[in-house]
Design goal:
The protein has 7 helices and 14 strands. By secondary structure, it is an alpha+beta fold. The strands form 3 sheets. A 7-stranded mixed sheet has the order 1-4-5-3-2-14-13. A hairpin with a 5-residue loop joins strand 10 (about 285) and strand 11 (about 295).
């Protein structure tokens, strides 16, 4: 317990040292949205100066994190309560929240900084009343995970974050929270499968409950062949388990991913490979830059249960979208 406390202290110290740089990039992003040219130039110049000044602190924080990771050899950090809620989870929420560090949410998702959306996200999560929550693209360093933890830990006493390796400061962004304490937890990296985002060491988080295993992942956004190999790795892992599994996360599946469709349809009863090829605003969870609807986000089980798409952008969130993805929810009857 003392070792875990030391590790947590080191991580929060590193977080504090990295924060000024990410905040400076947030300010730069805000400056880019200013219409007045003069004010825009002043804002960008000021944030650039602040960013350069923060670099020594950032690299010190990165060094602390690398030392911590090398020494403690952790696969994830967890906050868990001694109180054990009986039973097994029945309601599941999966959501790619696009809460990356600093300006990255704006660059890759067109979203406002994570710090400006995290309060709204906490309210959204609590409103769904899910037993298990799987989030993707929620980083600890500059991405709002710490703020979110403080707001939901009263409802979700078992939280797992900074899941997987943190090579070169590139977290894979997985975050897992549960009302019910898992029997065990594990992280399985995808071995020798390199996707488009080389620095991200992707894999899947596994939580064992009384009557099932819950697997949370975020597959590669690049080639369909890579995603198929990652799905194969999960299915192979599934064969060695004594209980059914529920797979949740952003699978980045596209209509053209024939191999992935076949693999998922053959392993999960509620995956409809034909419907997955015909996506529109009624069942899509992500609208691409080409204005093409995709069903990237899934909760898959061995039962024929339809997942519910919960809007996080569009008409309801026109002025303040919560993410560039919709959330998905599944309720499993006892």
């Amino acid at each position: 317990m003392q070792i875990e406390a030391v590790e947590e202290s080191v991580n929060y110290l590193a977080l504090g040292l990295e924060w000024p740089l990410w905040k400076a990039t947030e300010l730069a992003g805000s400056g880019l949205r200013i219409e007045n040219t003069a004010f825009k130039s002043i804002a960008i110049f000021a944030s650039s100066v602040a960013g350069f000044a923060a670099l020594p602190l950032y690299f010190t924080g990165r060094l602390l994190t690398l030392i911590s990771d090398s020494y403690f050899k952790r696969n994830f950090i967890k906050i868990t309560s001694a109180n054990k809620t009986e039973g097994s989870p029945k309601t599941f929420l999966s959501f790619n929240v696009c809460m990356m560090p600093g300006i990255l949410s704006q660059i890759f998702g067109g979203m406002t900084p994570a710090s400006q959306r995290v309060n709204q996200l906490a309210q959204f999560i609590k409103a769904q009343r899910a037993d298990v929550v799987s989030l993707q693209e929620l980083t600890f360093a500059g991405g709002g995970a710490n703020q979110l933890i403080q707001q939901i830990k009263d409802v979700y006493p078992h939280i797992f974050y900074r899941i997987g390796p943190n090579n070169a400061g590139m977290e894979n962004g997985l975050f897992f929270a549960s009302r019910i304490k898992p029997i065990s937890e594990n992280y399985i990296p995808f071995q020798e499968i390199t996707g488009r985002q080389y620095g991200f060491k992707r894999g899947f988080f596994v939580a064992q409950f009384e009557d099932q295993y819950v697997i949370s992942t975020h597959l590669d956004p690049g080639r369909g062949t890579v995603r198929a190999e990652q799905i194969k790795a999960i299915i192979e892992y599934k064969k060695g388990l004594s209980k059914p599994i529920l797979l949740m996360g952003d699978l980045n599946i596209e209509p053209e991913d024939a191999a992935a469709h076949a693999l998922l349809a053959g392993s999960f009863a509620n995956y409809d490979s034909e419907a997955a090829k015909h996506i529109d605003e009624t069942n899509g969870t992500y609208l691409s830059k080409e204005q093409r609807w995709l069903q990237n986000d899934h909760i898959l089980t061995d039962r024929k249960i339809q997942q519910i798409v919960i809007p996080a952008f569009g008409d309801k969130y026109k002025n303040a979208p919560l993410s560039d993805h919709h959330a998905v929810l599944v309720r499993v009857n006892a």
